[in-house]
Design a protein that fits this description.
globular, three-stranded mixed beta sheet, alpha/beta, 39% helix, eight-stranded parallel barrel, 408 residues, 13 helices, binds beta-D-glucopyranose, TIM Barrel
Length: 408
């Protein structure tokens, strides 16, 4: 008989996530800032002040404490910490220490991402992810940052979603460095990212006794009868994920990040979400789709968690991102409710899941899409940058405080 779990165990982490570049603002020494302003850039608008989290982190952390969240995933920014090769900024490290201390004051466990898509400009000029010294440079950055911050960190994520960085930056040209058809560059970048994770994790562990892991994008890839696995971007990324799963067997946890499913029929990709290309289209959403054009399918989280559990040999799982871009906040609540019930079902099967971290805390800079998609539990007025918690923010706080999902 299948056991039904209805509540989360004590110590289960519930909260929200952001990344450095998407919320801090003014990250002008990074390759993404360059990319946002480059001629012919696909970005709809620059990140600018983002959510000014760089200056407003105190209020944002206090708000999360008031809401009842017990974990917060945020990023530290390599471009600030090492603004020139080999020059580490004590002031920036002190800034991140203050953020960590703020989390601790509010009894919030900080989950820290060391790398979330962006690179310092000096490294971009040398070739970025494809530069042959990339793994060694990442290792040194991890070592320095963990030495300065490790005692306050709860969980450390080395790299966010490395599986797509080679393909999207070197073959599709939709991320920095914006190469197209550079298969060799993509291959080198992917190899370097695997090695960077391995070396970065060792460096962090050598400086601090904290759990270290990698965060992977794991859409639920579903094949109908007669479908042939092909060469779509998602499928190629999935093959890279298999290599990261092998490395994750030596890690302390694996971060699972899922938004939707992608379906494949005998004729190839089918259903919503496969077309990423038209950034400027109207953000129309229906009950069945999201502002990103994805299928509204929170059940995808169950498939992703089971895959990670099986593929990484039973390493504990943190759900580090699960979320929906929508202008309809009740739809967000239903999405989270279903995703959390999937999490409970996985736990009832014996899978060791330790967190549900929603993406995102704030309406923030959604990369090339700019500020139009709204993933946040908390709205941000684009003129005043004032925070406006949505009903979903309070709803998730109730779940965090009680450890149970209320009847909808
Ligand atoms: C990334 C985030 C992004 C989110 C929503 C994830 O793949 O880690 O940076 O904003 O998806 O698209």
């Amino acid at each position: 008989m299948r056991v039904q779990r209805t509540s989360f165990p004590d110590g289960f982490l519930v909260g929200a996530s952001v990344s450095a570049h998407q919320v801090e603002g003014g990250n002008s020494n990074s390759d993404w800032w360059w990319w946002e302003h480059a001629e012919g850039s696909p970005c709809l608008e620059p990140s600018g002040d983002a959510c000014d989290f760089y200056h407003r982190y105190r209020e944002d952390i206090a708000l999360q404490g008031d809401l009842g969240y017990n974990a917060f995933r945020f990023g530290i920014e390599w471009a600030r910490i090492e603004p020139a090769e080999g020059e580490f900024s004590r002031a920036e490290l002190a800034h991140y220490r203050r953020i960590l201390a703020g989390c601790r004051e509010h009894s919030i466990i900080p989950i820290v991402t060391f790398h979330h898509f962006t690179l310092p400009m000096w490294l971009h000029h040398k070739g970025g992810f494809a530069f042959d010294r990339f793994p060694e440079l990442f290792e040194r950055y991890c070592d320095r940052a963990a030495a300065a911050l490790g005692d306050l960190i709860g969980y450390a994520c080395t790299i966010n979603e490395p599986q797509g960085l080679g393909h999207s930056g070197y073959v599709l040209g939709i991320n920095p460095p914006g190469h197209r058809g550079d298969v060799e560059g993509s291959r080198r970048a992917t190899g370097n990212l695997l090695e960077a994770h391995r070396r970065g994790a060792v460096a962090i562990r050598s400086q601090a006794k904290i759990p270290v892991g990698i965060c992977l994008a794991l859409p639920d890839l579903q094949y109908e009868d007669g479908a042939q696995p092909g060469q779509s971007g998602f499928e190629l990324e999935s093959l890279v994920n298999d290599q990261f799963f092998e490395l994750a067997r030596d890690d302390d946890f694996i971060g699972v990040q899922t938004y939707t499913r992608f379906r494949f029929g005998p004729e190839g990709p089918r259903g919503a979400g496969h077309a990423w290309s038209d950034l400027s289209r109207e953000l129309t959403e229906t009950d069945d789709t999201t502002q990103m054009g994805y299928e509204n399918y929170p059940q995808a989280l169950g498939g992703a968690v089971r895959r990670a559990w099986k593929s990484a040999g039973g390493v504990p799982i943190l759900v580090t991102e699960s979320g929906i871009a929508t202008a309809m906040d009740e739809k967000r609540i239903r999405y989270i409710d279903t995703a959390m019930r999937e999490t409970l079902a996985c736990m009832a099967e014996g899978i060791d899941v330790r967190s549900y971290i929603y993406w995102s805390l704030l309406d923030n800079f959604e990369w090339a899409f700019g500020y139009r998609p709204t993933f946040g539990l908390i709205g941000v007025d684009r003129k005043t940058l004032a925070r406006r918690p949505k009903l979903s923010a309070y709803w998730l706080g109730q779940v965090a405080r009680t450890g149970a999902l209320p009847d909808l």
